[in-house]
Amino acid sequence: MAKEGADMTEETEYMIDKNVSKEAENVESSGDAKEMRAVVLAGFGGLNKLRVTKKAMPEPQDGEVKIRVKACGLNFLDLMVRQGTVDNPPKPPLVPGFECSGIVESVGENTTGFEIGDRVMAFVNYNAWAEVVCTPVDFVYKMPEEMTFAEAAAFSLNFVAAYMMLFEVANLREGMSVLVHSAGGGVGQAVAQLCSTVPNVTVFGIASCFKHAAIRDSVTHLFDRNVDYIQEVKKISPEGVDIVLDCLCGENTAKGLTLLRPLGTYILYGASNMVTGETKSFFSFAKSWWQVEKVNPIKLYEENKVIAGFSLLNLLFKHGKCSLVKSVMDKLLCLYDQKKIKPVVDSLWALEEVKEAMQRIHDRGNIGKLILDVEKSPTPLMASDSTETSEAGEEEEEPEGDNDSKERMPFIH
């Protein structure tokens, strides 16, 4: 079974390799391998690098579960993958995506705990944006009966990350205060809901003005990122806050550390300020690096402050903390069953609408999670631009000079 899965992977890579001749491609695709639709990133860069194409369907190896995907989550991290700004990404062409939900179609040898037909949600180390995925059983969780596939795709990454930052890293307790950036996003809304499960927790949310009406009831105090939120927070809480959750980095790192109370914890879990345009910008990287306050351990010691970093995907795929994540997921599903938490879904998009969906999160237009609905029919105008009939998943390269014209103003949260 393992050898068969490895052969399938080699076949897939061969089919989509841009250097393979058309004749060889036709020979390879003429076999008995079943095909599926998938979003393929042909190379790092702008939205033009994304296409929906046909790929060989994977089969489960030992210890893996094969899932017929119903919905996939779209995160800001996926934009950074597209641009090639994450550490050690796979060599393109690749299928993006780290989380999905669907129905178990088969299981590999030595795989227990799941049966064909089970409704599940799963973490995937890339390859989630496809009709079928295979992932190790340790990354798969059964869905509650009342949970929809869209909710499940919005649940796993956002709520597990929010829970672990609040309770495993920062030790959130009764009477504490939390400041969260991007309060209208998927993680931000998960943080707000989880804070509401602890008595007398004050939540300071930072978000774009146009989102305030929709999310005002989810937090205690809400501020516009464009105002001096440090002074606004200190008017309410002169000593500052106990926990700062920062997905921005850059100048907000120094601001977050300034707001911490003694024994407070600042957690960095993203660096979205480094992304300002459709393609990777060296200037944005340099600016964010320059704005990050260089942490002095002696100063942390003197001020009794804690600074931490958190990456859920690294915790799963690099550090092997599957059991810890499983225990957190069990707690979260109990909270869901008790109707204390519920994923916020912003909108559903067809695979062929992936460019438009990514643009929406690019422009910070979402409140909650964007979902790729595998069974959704695309809007005709969108589908004509995003669908590729070639198995190579390629398209004509844009001139290098066009990248500069696509630079956008920095995002507003």
From TrEMBL:
Residue numbers spanned by region Disordered: 377-413
Bias kind Acidic residues: ranges: 391-402
SMART domains: PKS_ER (SM00829)
Domain of life per record: Eukaryota
Keywords carried by this UniProt record: Oxidoreductase
InterPro entries named among the record's database cross-references: ADH-like_N, ER, GroES-like_sf, NAD(P)-bd_dom_sf, Quin_OxRdtase/zeta-crystal_CS, SV-ATPase_mito-regulator
Residue ranges occupied by any Enoyl reductase (ER) domain in the UniProt entry: 45-372
Record's compositionally biased regions (Basic and acidic residues): 403-413
Gene3D superfamilies, alphabetized: Medium-chain alcohol dehydrogenases, catalytic domain (3.90.180.10), NAD(P)-binding Rossmann-like Domain (3.40.50.720)
GO MF assignments: oxidoreductase activity; zinc ion binding
Family under the similarity heading: Belongs to the zinc-containing alcohol dehydrogenase family. Quinone oxidoreductase subfamily.
PANTHER family attached to this UniProt entry: SYNAPTIC VESICLE MEMBRANE PROTEIN VAT-1 HOMOLOG-LIKE (PTHR44054:SF2)
Name the UniProt record assigns to this protein: Vesicle amine transport 1-like
